[in-house]
Every structure is written in structure tokens, then in C-alpha cells.
Structure of 4-hydroxy-tetrahydrodipicolinate synthase:
Amino acid sequence: MTTADTSAPPFGRALCAMITPFTESGSLDLDGAQRLADRLVSEGCEGLVLSGTTGESPTTTDAEKSDLIRAVREAVDGRASIVAGVGTFDTRHTVELSLAAEKAGADGLLVVAPYYSKPPQDAVEAHFREVADAAGLPLALYDIPGRTGTRIEPETLIRLAEHPRVVAVKDCSYDFLGAQKVLSRTELAYYAGCDEHNLALYAVGGAGYVSTVANVIPRHLRSVLAAFDAGDTAGAARLQQLATPLIELMMSAGLPGSVTAKAVLNELGLPAGPVRAPLRPAGREAVDGLLGEYERLVAV
């Protein structure tokens, strides 16, 4: 196979791993989800990933996941792709969620490596193939071994790329060499799943990003890709570097991205609400630091 053609990524280039808004009582806030989705798309997001890590998928029910897809589908009205997180540690349940997401109106599926059980690579491959065979939507495979305990090895990705419905990867492997190996040998669309890699992966042929930080600064992150596309590589690097302090605070300061993203959105008066247990809200010191860095960035 040839190197990936990034001229038309399957779900767009700039994707947001959207938080799942909850009401103060902890129930699903569908109105808030619609308002947030509309803002994100208006601010440059070409796709929204629902019920991923940032969307607190482990603590939302199957019915809530489907309700969220339907609500966001209505809000964006074809202006952006909707990719539904459906991955679980159970192949049968993952297939059920995939079929439900398709029925609810998703455009694609985000399928994480099966976690906790630590299956070997042949079992990981079989899991993805069973989901891809059952679903009628294109799949993005989610490689995040730091959370799942199981890597999707590059050779496994290369074999899975032969399946017509396996079209993309969300890469949180921190294996930049492995990502380039898969890029050079398949047509998979590679999305950076770690915001510090957005520009670096894009520069070597990646499709774009699936970003948690885009919940907060969607337009700025989109501008990084736009500058690179325009041939202004120095400008793209400068814009990426400007975002680095906020990326670090949101993603590498000891709190999950769902917690930090909701902290900033709540401070800005945007739909977010609380996180669900076992997660806990950010403390005042962390919130002040996040908000201060956000304000410094948007003032540039």
C-alpha cells in the first residue's frame, strides 16, 4: 500500500473529543450538549468524537450514549462528522454499541483496544475484525495503552488496514516511530490523540487530531493546521508552541482531560457541569491556573 493520502481524511482534520455535559444533579444534559456541539463546529471543528475518554464513556449508560448521538446529530445538522466511542473490554457489548450508534446517526465508530483482560495481539485483531464485520460504519481504532494496558502493535494495525471498514487510528501510543511505520505502509488516516503531537504527526502525513484541548480552544488548534497547510511551517510551530502551556496543564498536570476541560468550560459559562464519580472536580488552585493560562493564550 502507499503512504496515506491526507487530502480527504474520513472524518475531517480537526476533531474534538467532546466532553459529555451533565446537569448539576448529574444527569445527561442534552440541551447543553447541543449548545456545546454547535459552538465547537462554529469555531472550526470538522468532527466531534462522542463518548470517548474525555466524554467519560465508562460512566455513561448505553441509552445515554445513543441519546447523545441523536442530540448532537440534530445540533450539527451535517456540518461535522460524528464519531461514536463504542469500545469496551467485551467484544459482544462493543458490537451491540456499534449497531446502536449506527442506528442513532453516527458517521463513524471509535473502537478502543479491549482493556483489562490484556488479550494477545491475535485476540486484539480478532476483536476489531468482529466489530468491523458487524458494523456498517467506518472504524477508527483507538490505541491508548496507558489506559487499556494493551497496545495495538504496528504490525497488527497494518494487517487490520486491509479490512475495508478500518479506515483510521487515534494514536495515543507515544510511539512516533511506530506511527510513521504504519503511515508508510497503509492508507490509514492517523489522528493525533495527544495534543502535544498534533503538528508533529500532521507534518509526517497524519490526518489531523482528535483533541481534548479543542473543547476549550477549538479555533486556535485549527489555526495550527491551517498555517501548515498554507506552507507557513514556522507559523504553525509558533501557534503550537503558544498552546503548549495550556496543553500541559490540561493533559499532563495530574488531572484527567475530562476534569480540566470541564473546569475551564464551567468557568467560561459554557455547557459542562460536573464529572461523574470516581472522577472529582478540579480544586480551586488548579482551576485558577487553567483559567489564567487560557486567558493568556486567547489574549495573544
Notes: Residues 180 and 204 are 7 Å apart (CA to CA).
